Amino acid sequence: MTPLSRRAFATAVTASLLAGCGGRQADRGAGRGTAAARPAGTDPAATRLAGTTASPRPAAKSVHPLGRSVPVRLRVPAIGVDTPVMSLGLAADGSVQVPPIEAHDRAGWYRNSPTPGQTGPSVILAHVTVGAYGDGVFRHLARLRPGDRITAGLADGAAPEFSVTDVTTVAKSAFPTGAVYGDVDRPELRLITCGGPRSGTGYLDNVIVFAELVPTGP
């Protein structure tokens, strides 16, 4: 397990996860959700996802991990996303930060995770809605399908491309922490937002997209 992956996983297990929702709670200025992160295996979906993301795969084509360089842009053509990316850390209460609720919202990379293209799961969050401003950057995240492409623009000029491998919606009360933050032996990407039915304080579920780096050589 790489130091960055280990740190991200430990943080996720001990802190509450926020995946940007922009529901009523955010409108009141909280800017954070209340989904409790749980280790993988707390529900069938978590078990399935953990097995999928952690299993070894045949190396038909070699994937070459990139050096560390922070993401500055994210493009997901299949759902019309082309957004700047900001850096996110932890809030004062130990939850994962999300981008601010504003008219021109943007995605945020969780800086305790690897950068896109490094070995391990790089995690990017964004809102599904932004209160009175309407749709958020990840409004249509659940529409992605396996094989759709995602490009991360990095500060050093690199633009690694990822292919979607899975899209799932899970209850926040059973968030598959191990599958999302757990160590993997190749560069992967996670996109997270809120979804499912609304409650008095926002959304009840999380939409999670899993993707892996596309090989660039033979």
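The above is record 1. Record 2 follows with the same two-line structure.
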Amino acid sequence: MTTESSVSGGQSGFILGSRIFFDTGAGWVQGINGTAGRIELDTRMTRVLAAFACSPFSLLSFEHLIRIALDNGPVQGAHHELSQIIRALRHALHNIDPSSIYIARIPRLGYALVAPVTEQRIPGE
């Protein structure tokens, strides 16, 4: 992960791949250069995508992602909840960039973000 420090002020977040900006504070994703509209993420989706963005190409276990997504909440049905969150994230990212796969499932182990990530600060709107 690289840091883009030449742009000051404004929002901070991550560029996923080469086409998606993820605003970690506001919880939305959007195509870069107006390639797609803004998609609002719920709190759980934002937490999980932020964890992925901080550890690109790294396996994040189901249990780790469940703790992040559910904020250490109840675990009954947690794997199903995580599957729904991942499905919704994949759908949102696909709507912006249908030509790329961003989240891969590693059977019996967890998930990984399989796209390069660049930390970015952009000027305020």
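Residues 1-9 have pLDDT under 50 and may be disordered.
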